Amino acid sequence: MLKRLFCTNVILFAMVSFYILSLHSPAIAAKKASGRVTVITKSTDGKKLGNVPFTLDGEPFETSKSGRTTNVVSANELHTIVFGTVSGYAISNLVDGKTTFTVKTGKRVPITGLYKKNHVEFQECDCKHELAANSKTICGYLIVPENHSKVNSRLIKIYLTIFKNPNKHSESGPLLFLTGGPGASTAPAVALFENKDNIPFIQESYVDTFRDNRDLIVVDQRGTNYSVPALYCSEETGKLRDAVYGLPFSEQAKVRVEAIQACYERLSASGYDLSVYNTFENAADIKDLRDVLGYDTVNLIGVSYGTRLSMTMMKQYPEILRSVVLDSVLPPEINPFNDQPEGVMFALRSFFAACVEAFPDTEKTYYDIISRLEGMPVDTIGHGIDSTGKPMEALIPVDAEIFVSYVMGQLRSTPYDASLPLNIANIYETQDYSKVADAWIGNVNYFFPASGAGSDDPSLGMFESMTATSDGYYTTPEKVLSMIYLAMDNLAIAGWAKNSFLSSEPAVQGLWEVTPVSPEIQYPVISNIPTMLLSGGIDSGTPPVWAQDSARYMSNSFTFTILAGHATTILPCAAKMMDNFVNDPLTKPIFECPTTYTWNTAVTSSSRKGKAAPGSYRFMRIYD
């Protein structure tokens, strides 16, 4: 009897203990009823689409290779599913209706994402540029959806220039050239690659190096040059040039922003969906190019913003890439508006260090000129070329910020400006600011473009849309200002940076209204695709440290710093390294470029006339 009572008490104690614990412990609490959701992805023609991303209640998943996967969820509750994008397809109406659904206890609920294949094709056309004798170049339009994720999206045209390999097909795939900006014109690059004038430097750098081994394809990215539509703002900005040459930088910036806002209103009224002129859609165009032209894999060379586009391709479509060359690297994890102030100072310090033997006083002289000009601008006649190609001149009030702009621009030059230390010394001694005034006119002409397709001028609408959907959205004016003053203790340099990175840019100020892309645009690239990263040692636009940091996430990468500014692959030594890499992407190329800066120590005819290093301004604008 006592034994039976003891056992009964033990059981009652255990039951009470379990009850008490269940009130306080989620692990022992009553288990919720569960249901199951089967997610199916297929095309409207019945084709199974596997490995399609989707989110279920905000958590990322993807369907299996067969286009079907089952998830356990709590029953009798609302659950939300959002289907992701599929290359070459747009999401159609869901077979099962809404994306929000209720699961009942013990039930298996199917929900299907139905995708419709996008209309994509290539239409050959006459080339827009002048062809060389016996040229094999092919040109045409890649027809793609404006919005790859939208059913029955309007179609746009991406203009392609295909320089055919004289040795016919290459098993290593073509080389796709992706320029920068975003929004920079490919017109100068196409003229170089065609080389109709048989210029030896160009022949050695490009024609012999690249085209003898594979097709070279230059892409007019959506919204630029001969692509349709081309989002130029030149009708708003070009007419303002004469009025802004003589304005201080801060006043010029205000005029530029107002003009670009007027351009936004015009382009929006034309019916263009400016939100989809973004890097993800740009990458989808490149994927379509590969599919339509029938290549198994392709090789990419991206320069400046073209590196951002290339790295997006590495994340989105790694299976189509054989090798990637990144020149003047703008990684996705870098926000240039936040990070460029420190990058600029890195380039400036690198330049001063490189000058110390031949011109030990360059740093002091640079800051002495700034001090002399602060509050005391010097009116100087500057010379340039107008939109019709004719010589022009204008009176420029050269102040400290305009002098800073001159030096920063020259640091971007490739080949590097070998006369820059000497020119700084001469400016201090003679107080002749004609070189500075000349450079400022070129700067104004670039940022107030007057021409459209076929010119060197950029597509500002493309630049603003690309920027406003990503970097411009994921920062604030306050953040940009704080980063400027954190990196720069000189007020003139900080003022130049403020007007360059903030006051001149509508996208950063929230004045180019578009829908931003997802935050994943900012994620670094983790990849084993063979990649070569090149940087200019004194480049004030994309400092070498950006490339070096990105390379840490790339297991098959090679990183080089070239004695140059922006866009190093125009140099024959860098072009040869690039060609060797693309031919054998798993072997580190031999470094073949100079390892010591050589500065001019006597006045040359070029420096006397106030010109930059030969070809530097032209090349800088190709790859900006």
Index terms:
624 residues, alpha/beta, 9-stranded mixed sheet, 4-stranded mixed sheet, 20 helices, 19 strands, globular, disordered N terminus, disordered C terminus
Word description of this protein:
With 624 residues, the chain is of the alpha/beta class. 37% of the residues lie in helices and 20% in strands. It is built from 20 helices and 19 strands. A nine-stranded mixed β-sheet has the order 9-10-11-13-12-14-15-18-19, with helices on both faces. The chain has a four-stranded mixed β-sheet with strand order 4-1-8-6, with no helix packed on it. Strand 18, helix 17 and strand 19 (557-562) form a beta-alpha-beta unit. The termini are far apart.
How would you summarize this macromolecular structure in one to three sentences?
The chain has 624 residues and is α/β, with parallel strands linked by helices. It is 37% helix and 20% strand.
Radius of gyration: 29 Å
Oligomeric nature of the chains: single chain
User: Poorly predicted ranges (pLDDT <50, ≥5 residues)?
Assistant: 1-30, 604-623
Distance between the termini: 95 Å
Topology (SSEs and partners):
Blueprint: H1 2-24, E1 34-43, E2 53-56, E3 59-62, E4 68-74, E5 77-83, E6 89-91, E7 100-103, E8 108-117, E9 121-125, E10 138-145, E11 155-163, E12 175-178, H2 187-194, H3 200-211, E13 216-219, H4 234-237, H5 241-244, H6 249-269, H7 279-293, E14 298-304, H8 305-316, E15 321-329, H9 336-355, H10 362-373, E16 378-385, E17 391-398, H11 400-411, H12 420-430, H13 434-447, H14 460-468, H15 477-487, H16 491-503, E18 531-536, H17 544-551, E19 557-562, H18 572-583, H19 605-608, H20 616-622
Parallel strand pairs: 1-8, 12-13, 12-14, 14-15, 15-18, 18-19
Antiparallel strand pairs: 1-4, 2-3, 2-5, 5-7, 6-8, 9-10, 10-11, 11-13, 16-17
Helix pairs in contact: 3-18, 6-16, 7-8, 9-15, 10-11, 10-12, 11-13, 11-16, 15-16
